[in-house]
Queue: 3 jobs
Job 1
Amino acid sequence: MNLKESRAYTPKRRISRQLEIGGVKIGGKAPIVVQSMTNTDTRDAKATIKQIKELEEYGCEIIRVAVPDVEAADALKKIKTGIKIPLIADIHFDYRLALAALKGGVDGLRLNPGNIAERDKIKKVVLAAKERSVPIRIGLNAGSLPKTDNRRLSVSTRMINAALEQIKLLESLDFELIKVSLKAFDVPTTIEAYKKIADKIPYPLHIGITESGTPRTGIIRSSVGIGTLLYMGIGDTIRVSLTSHPREEVTAGYEILKSLNLREHGPILISCPTCGRTEVDFIKIVDEVCVQLVKVKKPIKVAVMGCVVNGPGEAADADVGVACGKGKGIIFRKGKKVSVVEEKDIVRSLMAEVEKL
Ligand code: SF4
């Protein structure tokens, strides 16, 4: 399948009201943004800056940090000056931390209506955010829903109701720099919640599956949940929550977007599952190609195929490819066969062709 053909199936997006977080456009027709969250101690500004810089390298476009206490809020100013991407403060329980974070110069706030509910406290935060034109994400989480709500209702309805109530409060204060998220661990619950709220509000949606687990299972849960929503046109920013280093979240986020043709970011690797026809140490070759491709920023398609059945077809369709044979590899570039090399030279020859693109 050629690129034009696959692009024809790119999902149609729900067009939300656009806003900016630290210069990054969110919603409307802006590209879907990949976010992550640090797992360093925010009070340790040096370690947090170091991690954010690494995430910037991986393409992270917005970063959120936990602000559990005043010391963490105080560190935000320093963190902000040490990084390039927009900084969002994640606030729970204490509205005063949100006020301190705004003073520290953050570009966005995430508030949880499940644990900051008093109107006068929220009002103080909203007015301070409005003064600085800082957007607020109303971030609902199935695990921390408001205690006062009707527990006989479904979790998705309870998340929606809590979000709508908070939105009403922000709108009553003439504040519309709003982003919303409704995350649950349960994938169908999350999809249902986003699907329903998408028709009720004009604001951008931050999507993700919360507490989705280790990369092995979490990437699958997130891909199913986030992928389904994106295919329905829902979602303006994404975060793949993983019990891992956040670089894994960023990489997985782009892979989800790339798989739906919604973003280009670095290479796409096409490799066959191998079978009894393979006559080279194929998994080793693919692993090596994978490692080498990490450094490549170009949005190219690289095909590594185990034999001559589908090999030449897929390899020829990619920007660069190899179709392996008995201890050999036929190297292709832009559909043309360029050389036949020994097994030991396959990775080097393939990467040399990547360099030439
Ligand atoms: S490309 Fe060849 S080796 Fe790979 S799975 Fe298909 S038939 Fe098997």
Job 2
Amino acid sequence: MSYYVTTPIYYVNAEPHLGHAYSTIAADILARHMRQRSEDVFFLTGTDEHGEPVAQAAQKLGIEPRELVDRNAPKFEELLPQINVSNDFFIRTSDPEHEAKVQEIVQIVHDNGYVYEGVYEGWYCPRCADFKSELELGPGQTCPIHKIPLEREREENWFFRLSAFQDQLERLYAERPDFVRPQARYNEALSFIRGGLEDVSLSRPKLTWGVRLPWDRRQVMYVWFDALLNYVTALSYAGGGEDLTDRFWPALHIIGKDILKFHAVYWPAFLMAAGYEVPKGMFIHGYLLMEGHKMSKSLGNVLDPFEVIERFGADALRYYCFREVSFGQDGSVSPTGFEARYDSELANEYGNLASRTLAMIDRFRDGRVPAAEPDPELAGGGDGLARVDAAVCGLLDRAELTQALDEIWKRVRRLNRYVEETRPWDLAKDDEEAGRLDQVLYSLAEGLRVTTLLLLAYMPEIGDRMLDALGAEDRAIAAFGSHGGGQRIEKLPPLFPKIEAAAV
Ligand SMILES: [Zn+2]
């Protein structure tokens, strides 16, 4: 089966920040997990480079827009290895291949009769690159997002006949209750549709930095349609000579809640107009709110992702973001919150489980995992190891990143309790308990292997080190008890060293 996941493409005018990393890591976790299930995965991210704000910023600097985007796009691309992201392609909407494909698709929409010429007059926010309807206006004709005064614009545009898709979109939502998740976002999009769809501008005159309409070269495509089309155009040229569209389309989109309307309403309608399949679905995440009142031990008082990565590694940041804030909701992140999770969960729970499991196998069984049967005691119950792989796969099928991590973490805690209950160090003193000790040590190693395979998508570097130390070569998701044991282990330095207070 193919699995195609995308991030939003990031507007090149901004500096990369935690919000960009958050969307991208989410998509990366899904891509990595699906590869572990032998799915045929394609994972796309990139930059959105057209539109008025880029042209204006370039003008201020006295350079061409092309020069500005060539300067800024690499900042986003360079972020990816820093956060352990495994994208298959990086699209830039200024790629000539993208532009050519956008023109080809918009020509189809034109030929299918879904565009017409008209005059648009309305309140326009240059920062959103969007006209605001009367319902969306802030007090005194301001942008509700940017709080800046809107401009009254009147211009000749080509329009996209969005209203023609009223029934089809309502039907799509009725037939596919999981098209948009979480449920609250589905409801929001559906109520926007039910409020009655109006046609939207497809192009704007007077702009120069963008994709020109093939049948009217005075007009430049509205940046939103140009940007949305990246999800489709990338497949036409990312594969070198091979067109990947049939192999991977439709995609699952991971997006933030600020761009819901474009993705959940305009985008499927535009695809229908062009004769493409609509997306497989979309998951809308919330915001990470920066909280910083208390000064932390090592990280100051505002969570700086680059500092976290430098001091603790990207995996700790990846873990923290999805553990601390339920994916799909807004939630606060802070340096003290990070340190608390790092200490209590990564170092004391997982790190400790890893080090004592390896140490006991080394000491009591000469560094070789005994070949034994899995302990039914550890397999069973609500937090048992028996079906953790199926539970996590089921949740990640629905992009429930935090719930899946919760399921994994319950097993980490269960394994630690198991050590306390079985007391292998006492069993080791009694020769008659040799068989029982084999079973306990095998079950611990196997439990650690199975949970680490599930954690690997969240923490690829740490997970690899752990699995190598366990002598586990295969990276495919595995059921508890599926490895027979007998392999050699290696000792590891601490996976999560203790936090030292920063020098002041
Ligand atoms: Zn705005």
Job 3
Amino acid sequence: MMNKDAKIFIAGHEGMIGIALVRCLKTAGFNNLVTKSFSQLDLTNQSEVRKFFLQEVPEYVFLAPIKEGGILANTNYPAELIYTNLQVQTNIIHFAWEIKVKKLLFLGSSCIYPKFCPQPMKEEVLLTGLLEPTNEAYAIAKIAGIKMCQAYNKQYNTNFISVIPTNIYGPYDNFDLRTSHVIPGLIGKFHQAKIGKKEEVIIWGSGNPRREFLYVDDFADACIFLMNNYNQSEIINVGYGKDISIRELASIIKEITEFDGVLNFDDTKPDGMPYKLLDISKINKLGWSVKTDLKKDLKKTYIWFKEIEEGKQNK
Ligand SMILES: NC(=O)c1ccc[n+]([C@@H]2O[C@H](COP(=O)([O-])OP(=O)(O)OC[C@H]3O[C@@H](n4cnc5c(N)ncnc54)[C@H](OP(=O)(O)O)[C@@H]3O)[C@@H](O)[C@H]2O)c1
């Protein structure tokens, strides 16, 4: 269990999940949080990261920085993705060991699981088949991070755990329509259509694929729970536990954004995998489950996004 005054380093605290971790840790009463912005500390810089760890000596580490960018980045910049992510996580994991942190939590991703694996995806399916090629650079770096944590646990008896999140969404998500994930992409699209008084929104694909989404505060809550309650090398999934079709999701977002035009699907465009859902029975058995509701959390996310957009227009 982390003491309320334990020194906790949140690496990547300027990202969506890092921001939520800081917010939830503070709300839970943790009062000794350490953060460094990207401009103060580039985590690919080995000597600077070492210096930071030797100076600060955190007791707990949440490892959340990432260089991402969806299919576009995986296709166009796989070298940058694999270099940055391997470098960042290698530096943090290694120096966390060197200064003997009590515990480190590494964030994986559900794209580490084989492209064709039984659904819902259990932790055991890792490395049982080929990856989705469009995610490879990112997924290989994540798998290396998990294996590195496990190797350090084995050889050095560290307590480094790896958590596998489903798709996370919420405030501070990436709403850039060129690189955004499903939820921010849909919110941005419907919002633009509403403002532009468009008559129709067209979504790529049939709308039938089913996906799982978890609100970022729920995910941060699960990470804090696991930091306090999970001490095994084996990876552990964190998800919402239920999936939703893109069609249903788009209808909810259409309603929330109050877009009153027509929603259509372009089924000449590819669909991707029909299902993607994590099996969360392991974390459920430990005593954690989702607290909130998709529609309410989508609404909170939209309210946040709208305020940011309105703020930009008023500048
Ligand atoms: N969001 C999801 O749906 C999801 C799903 C599965 C797993 N995850 C994992 O969860 C973690 C957090 O994700 P997120 O969505 O919060 O990501 P995010 O919003 O992109 O945040 C990542 C942060 O890391 C920073 N960063 C990147 N390279 C850095 C470097 N060299 N030195 C210092 N900081 C650096 C980024 O700064 P810049 O923005 O300036 O580059 C950004 O602030 C990641 O490990 C990600 O793989 C996320």
